[in-house]
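Hey,

Quick one before I head out. I ran the complex with zinc ion overnight. Inputs first:
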Amino acid sequence: MNDSPPGIPPPAPASAPRARSAAGARAAPAFADLHLHTLFSDGTFTPEELAGHGARCGLAAMALTDHDTVEGCARMAAACRSQGMEFVSGAELTAELDGCELHILGYFLDTENPKLQTDLKKFQTVRQDRIREMAARLNRLNIPLRAETVFALANCHSPGRPHVGRALVQEGFCANLDEAFDRFLKKSRPAYVPKFKVSALEAIGLIHQAGGLASMAHPGLNRSDDVIPVLAASGLDGLECFHSKHTPAMSEYYLEIAARHHLLVTGGSDCHGYSKGKPLIGGVKLPAVYYDRLKERHQAKAAAVENGEL
Ligand code: AMP
Ligand code: FE
Ligand code: FE
Ligand code: ZN
């Protein structure tokens, strides 16, 4: 009897041998998912659960890209290792350029980098203040939700609107998450508070100084592609051409844009576990050729830094 959630195969026994890890080589064809969230931000899976799902989806490599934090990376690295998968430490930063909100993914980050740690801490503090402001606005609407309730539910340093939504449901103020967003949390609704956004150029610089590569997330969800050439000229390394919300035509379109601007190609499911319905992991599989190019670029950059060339 398969009592696993829809779309997710039942877990394999922890001790089940994996041909790929036993051989130490990657079986072809191989795929990566380079956009994933855990409960260290607004996902619902632990790193171990996420790695388990990734392995069962046949992934060869996974990147963790929680919002404004790298706290889950050490556990995710260990979990991927034990499943015979490669792991890339990452994060997703909320940024802006010319008033346009965009998300920048950082890959191969040195999670111990002091400036990265300091800046992420700052972004997290701003996120926590934002939760307090959302709670205050709800209180003014006679919804007595306490910020502490949201923090307890979120149980992470990077809380966001989904946690406020879940708290509204948990406390009985809304029937479900959709109602919470529709009545209170969506842009233009009374408890909506805009999120702090670092400038996109600063985000790219922060990622680079932490030894990482920067890729623009889900360009198809942005209002304008005009920012892509600007970012490409400012050091952006990659473009997320494959994403759960991109149609095949959109992926083709962004592959062309990536080629035109000499950007690496990245892709991932943007799985948040159960926070937005069915887990998306396994729905977007980045062909290994793109992952290998990303890895090669990172290795070349790291070697150049080592040799004092950068
Ligand atoms: P934040 O970054 O804190 O502004 O929260 C944005 C997150 O809320 C994103 O991950 C969205 O996908 C999620 N979100 C937006 N609308 C909804 C909705 N109706 N139901 C659930 N999650 C939503
Ligand atoms: Fe999210
Ligand atoms: Fe995003
Ligand atoms: Zn994401």
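The first strand starts at residue 31 and ends at 33.

Talk tomorrow,
K.
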